[in-house]
Amino acid sequence: MKTRGKVIVIGAGMAGLTAAHFLVEAGNEVVVLEQDSRPGGRIQSIERNGDTLDVGAQFIHTNYALTLELTRKFNLESDLAKMQSSDMMLRDGHFHIIPWGSVRVPAISLWSQIKMTRMFLPMLLRKKHMGLEGWPGLLDMDKLELSTFARLKLNEECLDYMVRALMLTYSMSEPEGISLAYFMRSLHMYVTTGAHCFRSGNDVLPRAMARNLDVRYDTTVEAILGNDVVRGVRTSRGEIEAAGVISAVPSPALLPLYANWNADQRAFLEQFAYSKMPLVLYEGELPAAVNYWGGVFDRKAGHRVSFITFPHMKYERASKARYLLAWPLGSLGAELIDSPEATVMQNVTTELRRAMPVEAASLEPSCVVRHPHTYPQYRLGMFEMLLRFKAAEGKPSGLYFAGDYNDGGLIEGAAQSGYRAARRLMAS
Ligand SMILES: Cc1cc2nc3c(=O)[nH]c(=O)nc-3n(C[C@H](O)[C@H](O)[C@H](O)COP(=O)(O)OP(=O)(O)OC[C@H]3O[C@@H](n4cnc5c(N)ncnc54)[C@H](O)[C@@H]3O)c2cc1C
For residue 351, is it within any domain? Predict the structure, then answer.
């Protein structure tokens, strides 16, 4: 379907690239504007000593229908590796190993596990797909605060060692202030899907997509132009006229780009938040006993780094056994996100060595990757505000929204949001 003229897509992350891909496939003229010098946004891979390490998105889940369709389209299927490993949970100073797919979690009492299953299994069985719209009871669950719900309906152990661990590792949020609806989405992902990653680094997909598109790098969009009707954008390199614009940037980055948001749009953009984190890569000698991919630390014991991952455990021979990624989410991440690199490294190293003195003894920090928009945080009432924000699309006319926050987060949410924004624009 042809649009009436050139389309600008702001942002070359998965949302923007997917929107641009489908627009170009339908014969449209599309320019993608990206402030960075590479495509992929939060899908980011770096080279170290001949190894490729993902320092952004880690998993491609088996229910990512559109992401996997794009993987096939770009002939990358053979690059996918199945991730098969174990996790570790640190509780009361003990390391508990949990093989992936295991139904029994040794760190947690059987009674708490039964309580969790009895509470959430019936809700999960009613939710069959990943999209937001159509979730049974979405808006009711949007009004229930997760930590209060878990404390009242389950128990403290479930809150601290199951709900919190899941929210941190699958949704990068602490449960406090988060809606039950968002937890259900994370839980659904945890129990129903497996995970893959690309051997060449997860950014191989956005890189392949970007190669077929007109992407202008190092070009920051400063404003969306037009009052009632969009007429283009102003960038760090000058103005570009267009008949349609798709914004595919995280919502906090969208807010300053347009002056005349209506009340619902402004309320959502001002209040919707992402978790923040400076991810720290460590290098050095790892003890042979490290035989798990992810390790969750113990908030009750005062640990401030949320979790760690060992890239070599992603799949067989994924990399040399010499790296650790430390994920300081929650208050530590928010405190450190804008600090100088040396301060980030010093604080995270102190916390890491306090939590696992033996494993981290000979590791040194080697780089910091800042993620100011890690995952969207669906705090209380945010799904309802999001639905109102989406209903206000078309004001101004010609402006469409993509980005992971539109579709519940993650790579697949971003891809789906881009596909849908392209469809809406072409149908207009
Ligand atoms: C550390 C980490 C781990 C993750 N793990 C997983 C995982 O295992 N599985 C999973 O599915 N998801 C994971 N995610 C989330 C996933 O990466 C994101 O949901 C998804 O990549 C978001 O894509 P997007 O296109 O919406 O946004 P982004 O990737 O943020 O893309 C937005 C792009 O817009 C650009 N931009 C912003 N403002 C402007 C401007 N004014 N002008 C021009 N360009 C601009 C940015 O530079 C960026 O390239 C993870 C994220 C992080 C940070």
Answer: no
Query: Residue 200's pLDDT band (boundaries 50, 70, 90)?
Result: very high
Instruction: Compute the average pLDDT of residues 303-317.
Output: 94
Show which of 193, 221, 241 is a domain's final residue. Answer: 193
Tokens, residue 52: 């490729």
172 located within any domain: yes
- Residue 168 vs residues 160, 277, 330, 396: alpha-carbon distances, Å: 11, 12, 8, 37
Number of domains in the chain: 2
Strand partners, 98: 87
Longest dimension (CA), the chain: 63
Closest Cα to atom 12 of ligand 1: 410
pLDDT tier at 102, thresholds 50, 70, 90 = confident
pTM: 0.96
- Residue whose Cα lies nearest atom 6 of ligand 1: it is 57
Structural domain of 134: 109-193
Ligand 1 midpoint to CA 42 (Å): 3
For 364-400, letters b (16+ CB in 10 Å) and e give ebeebebbebbbbbbbbebbbbbbebbeeeeebebbb
CATH number at residue 178: 1.10.405
Judge if the beta carbon of residue 43 lies within 6 A of ligand 1: yes
Distance 111 CA to ligand 1 centre (A): 39
Indicate whether 147 belongs to any domain.
yes
